[in-house]
Amino acid sequence: MPAPRHLDDTPPDGTPSTEDPPDPRWALILGVSSGTGAAIAEAVARKPGLGVFGVHRGRYPDTARQVEARVREAGRDVFLRQADASTPDSAEAGADVLLERAGPRSVKLFVHAIAGASVGRFLSEGPDRLHPRRVQRTFDCMAHSFVYWTQALVKRDLLAPDARLLGLQNPLDQTHLGNTGLISAAKAALEMYVRHLAMELGPRGHRVNLLKFGTVMTPALHHVYAPEALAHLEARHAAMTPAGRMCTVEEVARFVSVLTGDEAGWFNGATIDFSGGMTLRLMDLVLNP
Ligand SMILES: NC(=O)c1ccc[n+]([C@@H]2O[C@H](COP(=O)([O-])OP(=O)(O)OC[C@H]3O[C@@H](n4cnc5c(N)ncnc54)[C@H](OP(=O)(O)O)[C@@H]3O)[C@@H](O)[C@H]2O)c1
Fold it and tell me: Per the record, a Pfam family (predicted)?
């Protein structure tokens, strides 16, 4: 296997030169076919130039095809697996395919970008009651699967030297929305998994972090909200956020490229706040509307 290409070999615009030898390293991205996962796949294929092994269940076939095309345009290999990524068995089966495809010590970046959560209230008597099955599914998707995949990667010696493992968090640990208690609880579990895995994987040279960012517009949001509701959401975020606008998935994705680089190698067990100060002004907005 050729030696890994140094990060500095990538031209400043992130476009791989045709003279570059192909980078043998891969990004494993759970939730690759939409929103944040899709944007990260495209960004890390350009810089530092990773192949993309992604998992999704097939509900966004157009974006999945677009991700494949853009990764190939960047000159990188791509393999998208259609499967549920949330269970221990699916992590084992997915890691087997990844090993066959990419070989040992090939995963430079693992990003957990699946979004599968129930909104509702714990004590509701209505259809939004958070009954045990919803609790279990939400924790499997949003938290436990991070551990299952990490265990499956380590068991097969799939992590490349100095690998980066990344969970994604929102600012709902700082301020709460009434019907998102289950999501916040699962993200709290994810945060603790990240810290403990950082301690366990640190001595092996790997880094495990949680990236926190504010609301970004994704196809899923467009699917869920009517256009007027989306305009309202955007306006309220503009009022809240010091920069006067929402963050974009592309900004988040470019920052993941940075976190994959040598310069970010000392982050470990960290919750990295990339929220642009989204919750700083909430009290001000309530008291001085
Ligand atoms: N969007 C935001 O504003 C925001 C802000 C902060 C943090 N985050 C975090 O970022 C992550 C991604 O969120 P997003 O909004 O970008 O999500 P999204 O646009 O809804 O995309 C979710 C992706 O996960 C896949 N997926 C969902 N459940 C899956 C499962 N069980 N197995 C395999 N794939 C699955 C989806 O494809 P299929 O449905 O076809 O499987 C899709 O590719 C989440 O952890 C979220 O909490 C999001």
Answer: adh_short_C2
Is the CB of residue 215 below 6 angstroms from any atom belonging to ligand 1?
yes
pLDDT tens profile 257-283:
999 999 999 999 999 999 999 999 999
Q: For ligand 1, is residue 10 a contact (CB within 6 Å)?
A: no
CA 20 – ligand 1 centroid, Å = 33
* DSSP tally for the chain: helices H, then strands E: 10, 7
If you take atom 19 of ligand 1, which residue's CA is the nearest one? 35
- Domains of the chain by start residue, with CATH: 7-287 (3.40.50.720)
Distance of CA 224 to the CA centre of its chain: 20
Determine the average pLDDT of the residues in 282-288: 94
**Ligand 1 centre from 287 Cα, in Å?**
34
- Is the pTM above the cut of 0.90? yes
Residue type, 5: R
* Ligand 1, atom 21: closest residue by C-alpha: 34
